[in-house]
Every structure is written in structure tokens, then in C-alpha cells.
Amino acid sequence: MKRALISLCAMALLGAAKADRIELNDRCPASFRLLEDGTCELVTLYSAYSSPANHGGVRAHISPPAKRYTPKEIDLGRYLFFDPVLSVNGTMSCASCHDPAKGFSDGRKRAVGRGELERAAPTLWNVAFADKYMWDGRAATLEEQAAMPLYSPKEMGATPESVERALRAAPAYRDLFNQAFGQLPTAELASVALAAFESSLISLNSRYDRYAHGDESALSEQEIRGFNAFRGFVARCSQCHIPPLFTDFELAVVGAPADDQGHEDAGAGALSDDPSLYGAFKTPTLRNISRTAPYFQAGQFGTLKEVVEFYNDTRGHAAPQGKPLKIHWHVHMTEGPELSEEDVSDIAAFLLALEDETLSPEIPSRLPSELQQNVRQGMATSGGLK
Amino acid sequence: MKNQNHLKYAFVMLPVLLAACSGGGETKQEAKQEESAQASASPEGAAGPREIVVEEGGSIQAAVNEAKSGDTIIVKPGVYKQSVYIDKPNITLRGLRDGDRWAVLDGETVKNDGIIASGHSTVIDGFYVKGYKGNGIMTQGANNFQILNNHVEGAFYGIFPQYGRNGLVKGNTVTGSEDAGIYVGMSDNIDVLENVAYGNVMGLEFENTRNALMARNHIYGNASGIALTIVPGLPVKDAYSQVIKDNKIEKNNIENFAPSSSIAAGVPSGVGIIVVGPDDITIENNEIAGNDNVGVLVTDLLTFGLSNDPKVDPYSDGIKIMKNTWRDNGDNLSGMLGGMIAAASRSGVEILSMGKDRDSCLLAEDGVDALGVDQWTACDPSMTKATFDTAMIKDGAEEPVYSPEQKGRLTYLAVCTGCHAYDSVLHGPSVESIKALYADNPEGLVQYAANPVRKREDFPEMPAQSYLGDDVLTQIADYILYDLGE
Questions:
Q1: Measured between CB atoms, does B410 come within 8 Å of chain A?
Q2: Chain B 193-232, residues with CB within 8 Å of chain A CB atoms
Q3: Closest CA to B353 of B255, B252, B276
Q4: What topology does CATH give the domain B404-483?
Q5: Longest dimension (CA), chain B
């Protein structure tokens, strides 16, 4: 009791001395509950359903992600995510390419690091559920993934040493890491905090979800038609984009065209001797898909309708020629599924019902590094919700 | 205990409550009811399950929309050029049959799928389904489903339960499917009984399915009779514990007419049963006759040429083949498979094992003519599944049970906190201000949440939460007003 009082006094004094000290949030983000071990666990209505692991469907069970983080780790990750202090020359943050105002993507065909990259910045919504990361699935954990763009010379260009140096040089970060981890900043802990923050980006309360939980009025008649075509066995979208997460996290070859610069991407095939993986990419989630145009790994399609039309066309019609692609069996049939015009429009309309950004995080108004935020296409404005 | 019953009621009555709420919803409801002018409900009102009758030419979907959990929809004989979907629980959809006159669902070769259901405990009984481009009848994520006594012709899959736990597929006839007539995909605890499958690429299939029974089916005149498979690259990574017994599997010799891009295109014709990758399979007391290449083919994913999945065991292990009746199998070799058997200077082969399977066995006394089974052992007679009569769960697959308080708190976290922070403004006003506004007035809070009206210009309109049900909303209101922050 006495000790608590003293530390309270110390905190009050500290607060008086430096009124603008950043205190990490000790509450879990919205839709998470604090467990007794001090970590935050996701709560979703899907957890109240019963189905075997990895089953899909309208009312399939979703278990909260097994990896959990403390409120302070999550909040520290939020500061780091928006802070260009991590990049080699202090000009780029994670949010430069994963802009909350653009569905945690960047609206570009290919992301721009220190020069244009080969692939698009994927959304971060619901990444906590994935078991592999990056378009080619090369990272197994969020922590591993977070380090990849950070230390890629083509992206943020940092090194573990530069990250640690920059964070330890910023008094505010010394304090924040102490609050979250009880120790000085390290590159490894920065990755943990980034993963913690990214795990809080949950989108499971769209109009579609209200429909799934029983609100028949949540979808329009066209959207319901679209959902039926989507899950039906002509279009077969739901065979890989399986509800409720609208992905299966598998690697799939769909026969994507080369990008607009003629680049043919081997995808996961570049990392494997397995010829069936040539041209394979991780199935992206369709959650908030309306927010992340253009589509495919190098922005080959500008609109959702174009994507649906791609799948409605003859199998392999746009695939690079002369490559032994083993296109996924659900990319339909020799002549294409021949969905009606109405089906194509209806499916595209349905996908808009998967929009839910209510749990978008608050963008820090001030960065611990005192650097300016730099979201590439101008400051994000609509992502912050407070 | 009383509370639990209350909760059960809340789950069952969710759609009922939904239908009963919100002005906008009501007009829509009325419009749909008008549409289904021919659907007539029994007069006793809201209490108890009802029968809704669809007269010839009426809209089956309108009846489904009108139905509440527990209701039965009776569809009179006639032709219905419609597709139907069921996304609510406990609906029985029953086609009436008058001699040769069925309740016919006709896709006219332009519609996608006949019936799609996701609702738990859906029953689909007695329809003649034809002319759909996709599947005749499919369920996705429905537990405790029953698909009974239907006749499905000419779909991709005739009947396709997917992601189901505990289901019964019984008494159906399936023909003309470009893949499997009855395709059980990634499901658990499924019985497939007394169906007839002919003229399909495969008659019946279990794919990535666990704990399942196929019994007393008649499977003839398909390219392959029964397929037991594990398909790589799917979310469910295993397939095991399947019993195939008392079936009649004969003359599955037609040409494989699957589209060339499909996995089914690789299935050889002239095969009674093809096993590709699942484990712990019992094939017992079947009549296997007149399949031109081989009675039972046991192989693995690699031999079959499917792509590698690091999380899938590609081999068929623990195959037990006992006490079947064999007649005239392997007597008319053709195709690649026939060529391979011929190359081994053999014909009349009843069982062919081509993979690196382990722990498989035969019953010596059966005297089966087998090839490639050198490493197989003798089955122990105690392995018999003669008395095994269902793979289903005795009392059905259950939903997890939460107390009303738990359900209220979970829902508060899962739904409310997305827009309402405790002591600050998020998308909507703070919970503190809501507590002040509705102090000692939980009914008022429930009423507002069920049917909100925009009160303040500076906040977005709140979506109606009536679908959560009054019970849950009441628990949430109690939690917010009396527990939170106290």
C-alpha cells in the first residue's frame, strides 16, 4: 500500500515535471478483453458458434488468435507503426504503405519503398488470423513479417542496429519500452510491439456479419443475390475466400496476368522447388476489399468488377504464356463459369458489404520521436476516429 | 437452469425477434408476404412451429423468408424455376410428391445452384432438382443437416454438404454429375445411407472428411463408384475413420466426362472404390462387381498427381478390406490404369495398391485377388464394423452454452465496444453518457438499441441491433447500467 502510494506520488511528480509524457494505454483495444495474465483477447460473436477447427460457413466458429499481447505492447506498436523513426532516413513509417485511410494499403499498384517494389502493399485487416504472411507466404509469424520490410534495403532500409540506436536515442521511446517491456528498446521488441498492434486490426462487424448473425435486413436484395452467387458452385469464390474470414490463407495459382510492366511474378514458386507453386500467391482476405484497390499482387485490376470478370473468363486466359502453371481447380472449367452479367455485378456489390473499419486505430497526434508523420499520399485523415 | 432455457429460447427465437422488429423491416416483410400470396400459414399465430404451404407456381424463397426457426415449408408438386437459400436455423423444406409428380426445382441450365443452406438443422426433403449449372443441393457450414429423398440430376455436384458437423444424406438419387453425385466435403460425423448414384463421374465421395459412414447405397454405371480422398490445399488437412459397408458397387465403367481442369478428370474409370490418401478406412461386406479395371484401387496423392501440401499426409494408411463379395472385376482393362495392370500381366484384379500405404490389411479367408499388397497384413476379425450403424453424434452437434450474463458481456465486447468507448467519444457517444441517460431504465436502452433513431447530428446512425434478440440486449443493458464501471 505504502509502495503504491509512493509510486503514485512519483507518477504525479513526473507528470507535473513533464506534462506531455506519453502514457501507454492500459486498456485493451475495443472488442478485446483483458485476461488475468494481463494480455488482451479478441471477443467476437463468431466465438459463440460451434464448428470444428478450420471449418467455414456463415456461422462458423472463430477462435481468438492464440498469440496475445498486453495493452501496452499494443499501444507501443501503434506509436511505432506510425513513426518514421524506424526507417533508415526517418522518412517512412509502416503507415506510409499501410495507410489506415486506404484499408491499410496504399492505393498503388506496387508499393513504393526506396523506389518502386514489385508487389502491392497488402491490407493488414485481420492479419492476426493468418498462418503465413507476405504475398508468397514466406513469413510464418507477424513478428517475422514486421521485420522484413523494415530491414529490406528496398523498403524501409533499416538494420536492427539502426532501429535500436534510433529508439534508444529518443527519450520518449526509452520510457515507452520501459512501460511496455520493462527494458530498453531493442529491434526484436519493436517487432513484437508492431505485431501486437497489427493483431488489433480486426474487421468482423460489417453489414455482412450482421446478416450472418441473423439480421436479414442487413444486406440488400442485390447483395444477397451476390452472396449466393459468391458461395455457389459456378463462381466458387467462397471455396478459397471462405467465410467468415473470407480467405483460406492457402497459396493458390489463379493464372494472374503479368503486371503492366510485363513482369511475370513466380510468387511462392520462387521460394520452392515444387513446380505446382509457380505463380502461387496467398489468398487475400476480402474483408474491406472495397478499400484496397487496385487488386492482385501487382495491381493488375482496378475494380472489383474487373476481378470478377477475370474469374468469369476462360481459365488461364490472361496467364503468362509458356509457363507450366498448375492453375487451381476451382478457377473454373475450360470455358469459364459463364456467370451472367447480373451475377458479376451482384458479386461485386456483395463485396462492398464486407466493409467494416470501426476498429480503425487512433492515429497518434504526436510521435514519440518528435518526427513528422509521413503517410505518403498526405496525412491520413479518416483513419483516426477520435 | 431456468436461465439456460431462457437462453436456448433466445437462440432459437433470434429470427423470430428479428422479424418482429424495426419499421423498415416490417414493410419489407409485408412486401415479401404479398409476393408469396400462395404461401399460407396455419392460423394459430406466433406460437409453435408452423407449416407454410407453397402452392404450385409460388415462391419457395418467399416462404423461407417468412418462416421462423422450427417451421416446415411444404412445397406442392409442380415446377419451380427458382433457386432457394436458407440462412436461418431449424427450417424444414419438404417437397410433396404425388406419384410421378414431384416438387421440381428447375434451373433451366441458366441458374447457378438449386438450394444453398447454411442454417443449422436444415432439412431438405423430397425435391426433384435439375438443370443447375453449379450444384443441385449444397450446404455450407450447416451442422445437424438432413438431405433426404431428393432426386438430383445433371449438376456439378448433385448433393454437396460442405463444412458440416453431424449430417445425414439418405434416400437420394443422384445422376449426371460432372464430378461426384454426392460429395461430402470437409465434414465430420456424416452418414450417407441408401442413396442411388448412377451416371456420374463419381457416385459418392468423402473428401477431407472425418468419422463418416457410407452404407446400403447402390452405386452403378458411374466412371468410378466411390472416391475416398484427401485433397491438398484445403483448410482441413486430414481425412480418417470412414466405414464403407453393405453397398452395392457395380459396373462403374462409363467414360469420365469431368471438365479437363478438374481434379475429377484424373479419376480412372472402371473402378469400384478409389482411395486417395485418407486413413483408417474400413471397406466391409460390400458387393463389388463388374468394375472393368479393378474393384478397389488404393493409391496416394503423389501417385495420383496432386500437388504437394506440407501439412497433408499423402498416403492412404490403415485400409481394412474385409468380407466383401467380389465378382467380375478387372476383366475388361482399359485406359492408363488398365494398361498398368495389363503390364503386370494381370487381369481380374480385385484390389490394387499403388502407393506407400502402411498398416493396411486384408482378410485372408476372403481369398481376394490382389496386386501390390505385399506389405499388407491379415486383418484381425475383431476389426469388423458389422455392428457399426452410425457415425453421427448421438444427440446432435451442440452449440456452446453461455449463461445470459456471459452472452451479454461477450456481445457487449464483440459488438458494442466497436463504436462506444467507456469514457470517451468513439463513433458513438461514450458508455458513461449512455449510463447517465438510461439510469435505471434498461428497458429504454433495449428498446433504443433494437430500433435506434438518429438523435444527434454529430454521430453516425446506429444500426439496429434487434437481431441479437431481446434477451441478449437485456443482458447487455443490465451489464452496462449496473456492472460496468461500478
A1: yes
A2: none
A3: B276
A4: Cytochrome Bc1 Complex; Chain D, domain 2 (1.10.760)
A5: 88
